[in-house]
Amino acid sequence: MAQHGGPQQRIFSPLRTALHRFAFILLIVSAFGLMLLGKADTVLIERIRAASADLVSPIMNVVSRPAASINELTEQATNLFNLYEQNERLRRENRELLAWQQVARNLSHENARLRDLAGYTSPPPLRLVTTRVIADMGGAYAHSLMVSAGSRDGVSKGQAVMSDEGLVGRVAEAGYQASRVLLITDINSRVPVIVENSRDRAFLSGDNTDRPLLTFLTADAAVAPGDRILTSGHGGAFPPGIPVGVVSSVSENAVRVAPLFRRHQLEYLRVADYGLQGILSDQAIRRNEMQSDGVIPNGVGIVPNDGNDTATDMPTANPAQPSDQLP
Amino acid sequence: MKPGVWHRLDIIARGLFPAFSVFILLLLNLLPVSVPLLSTASPALPLMAVFYWSVNRPDLLTALTAFFLGLLQDLLTGLPLGVSSLVLLLVQTGSASQGRFFHNKPFSVMWWGFALVAIPALLVQWLLSSALIGALLPIKATLISYVLTAALFPLVAWVLARAQNTLLRHI
């Protein structure tokens, strides 16, 4: 490519090296610029992320199918191997579950009657969108998945994502036909939870390990290994009562929770549209600022979907609603 | 003799292959696999390909391409923006300048070279990600990821070498 000699070469060669060096420095600077831009967490970045998810989702959608079927095949082989044992276990489990079903029926009737008596306002009905996992950003740095549902299917940012077993995460960015799900084990994940038995409130904070931490737990909280953790519904981000995990270890400075899902076996997930817009949207914040002298208390986490009218109709109901469900 | 349009298109398409292969490996990294180990730490496949091409064909995988492939990786995996861009850019520039060292040497030398390059690359990624997220990420996952990356390099390099021999012999 490069011919030697010639007066042109003598002039252009150093120029080209200088240009290369300049381009390299420019790229380094723009990498750091991107880091700052990402840190500012603008809406723009989120849109671009969602768009890039949309871009690769058709490919991933097709490519992940054979991968899933290979996984299924290996799973079937192991199942065949453990057939007898599994059958025994399932029989036992079925007996137990039948007993629980009876209890649940009784309780549900009783609950309905008591709700009638107390004039309880039911939480909004749950709309579920079932979707397939098409990518797993398995890595040392981020715990997230990509699912094949987006705003086209009614999925939007902040909605809770569940597997059969329990809570998996929340929608971090929703594209048109694909979304990214931030797992509860990710370091950026915070979920308001309660301990099932003691009703102690806490946050489940991921730290990029398989066992997220229970933080902001009060000093007198009674937590023991084996306790179930449920979403509390505080802040309106998630519907209350979704099972999240089981307390796996309690030490002096950390309470760790084992999530109910196994990440490598996630295949179909359900996205819960709770009719609430989850975490505060920009629009809602602006609206609250405008009416800060008025009826809506500041910092209210629940923003009803249909906007202003309902918010002004019941000014005090919003912040108190989730805690009403605590006994 | 002037080459025809198709011929030129063919050369352009072949020239794009290195960048395309990194993109494919990036998607491969995203595939959901039902192996418990791989869901916590996965091998850095794009890093391998960027190293391979910068050593063998730095003219076909430029610093700019490496930068944008890193950006795509950050966007797709939900990492802090700019981290992978910087890492892949540094790996590309560093390996391209040392590329001549690996020519006409046995493959094991290149393997050692990659194992050495991958240490600072993953370390920088870990440090910058931790700094940008604002909390120290567990180093264990990075270590597993490094071992997987170094161990799987021959496999990826073999596939890329086959592709290089068939597709890029004449350009």
Automatic annotation (TrEMBL), chain A:
Bias class Polar residues marks the residues at: 307-327
Hey, which family's this protein in? Belongs to the MreC family.
Gene3D superfamilies assigned to the protein according to its UniProt record, in alphabetical order:
Rod shape-determining protein MreC, domain 1, Rod shape-determining protein MreC, domain 2
Q: According to the lineage, what is the superkingdom? A: Bacteria
What is this protein identified as? Cell shape-determining protein MreC
Tell me which UniProt keywords the record has, alphabetically: Cell shape, Coiled coil, Membrane, Transmembrane, Transmembrane helix
- Coiled coil ranges: 70-110
What range(s) does the Rod shape-determining protein MreC beta-barrel core domain occupy? 133-271
Membrane-crossing ranges are 18-37
Q: Where is this region: Disordered?
A: 296-327
Q: Name one GO biological process term.
A: regulation of cell shape
Q: Fetch the Pfam families from UniProt.
A: MreC (PF04085)
GO CC annotation terms, alphabetical: plasma membrane
Q: Does the keyword Transmembrane helix apply?
A: yes
From TrEMBL, chain B:
Q: Which residues form a coiled coil?
A: none
Membrane-spanning residues: 12-31, 67-91, 111-136, 143-161
Q: Which domain of life is it from?
A: Bacteria
UniProt KW Transmembrane helix keyword = yes
- Work out whether the entry's keyword set contains Kinase: no
Among Pfam families, the record links this protein to: MreD (PF04093)
- Topological type in the membrane: Multi-pass membrane protein
- One term under GO cellular component: plasma membrane
Instruction: Keywords in alphabetical order, please.
Output: Cell membrane, Cell shape, Membrane, Transmembrane, Transmembrane helix
InterPro entries, per the entry:
Cell_shape_determining_MreD
| Subcellular localization | Cell membrane
Q: What is a biological process (GO) this protein takes part in?
A: regulation of cell shape
Q: Which family does it belong to?
A: Belongs to the MreD family.
For this entry, the protein name equals: Cell shape-determining protein MreD
